[in-house]
Design goal:
By secondary structure, the protein is mainly α. It has a single domain, classed as de novo design (two linked rop proteins) (Up-down Bundle). 74% of the residues lie in helices and 0% in strands. It starts with a helix and ends with a helix.
Length: 192
């Protein structure tokens, strides 16, 4: 892949998204540790009953795989941060196959994050502010991977034209913003 200015820009966006997510997931992990030490701890990210990290972090949904989700996020954001920096530096190890693998991982996190917000809004009736920043990072990373990998998809001509049109028109950016808007609207309507 030749490194154009636009490609470099998407690696920068990925790096920024990864840093935002990494910091947020690190702080979320610290908050979870505080809760594990004392279940009645008053967390710094508890603003009110709607924005309550305690309600979210004490729920079973915050440890889906048997350990805190934030630990999984730490690994994910560390990996994408390193890939963003490698791509930003125009290193040659960024192959199409590796990029597509990272994009698949990022899409998993986009789906997982959407599920987690659904659970937070409709079952827990609370949101974790740090989780919001993590998901912002996930959306930035996914948007970057889509733009970076779009030419490497092995698809038929019709789908290729659709993908190219989607990207040139900016509809892909609209899509990622739409996901954030849907979550925001659901939260406003359900949690107020």
């Amino acid at each position: 892949m030749d490194m154009s200015k636009s490609s470099k820009r998407f690696y920068v966006i990925m790096t920024i998204g990864s840093l935002v997510g990494l910091v947020a997931s690190f702080l979320d992990t610290l908050e979870k540790i505080a809760l594990l030490k004392n279940a009645h701890s008053i967390l710094t990210c508890n603003l009110n009953t709607v924005f309550s990290c305690s309600n979210v972090l004490n729920a079973r949904q915050s440890s889906v795989f048997g350990f805190p989700n934030s630990l999984l996020c730490l690994v994910f954001f560390s990996l994408t941060l390193s890939m963003g920096l490698v791509g930003w530096a125009n290193a040659k190890i960024v192959t199409a196959r590796l990029r597509l693998g990272y994009q698949a991982l990022a899409l998993f996190f986009a789906g997982f994050g959407f599920w987690f917000f659904w659970q937070s809004i409709f079952n827990l009736h609370s949101l974790c502010i740090l989780c919001i920043f993590c998901y912002l990072g996930v959306l930035l990373i996914n948007g970057s991977w889509l733009r970076l990998n779009s030419k490497d998809y092995h698809v038929n001509k019709r789908i290729r034209q659709f993908i190219d049109h989607t990207i040139t028109s900016g509809a892909d950016i609209f899509f990622w913003c739409l996901i954030a808007l849907v979550i925001t609207l659901l939260a406003i309507l359900k949690l107020k």
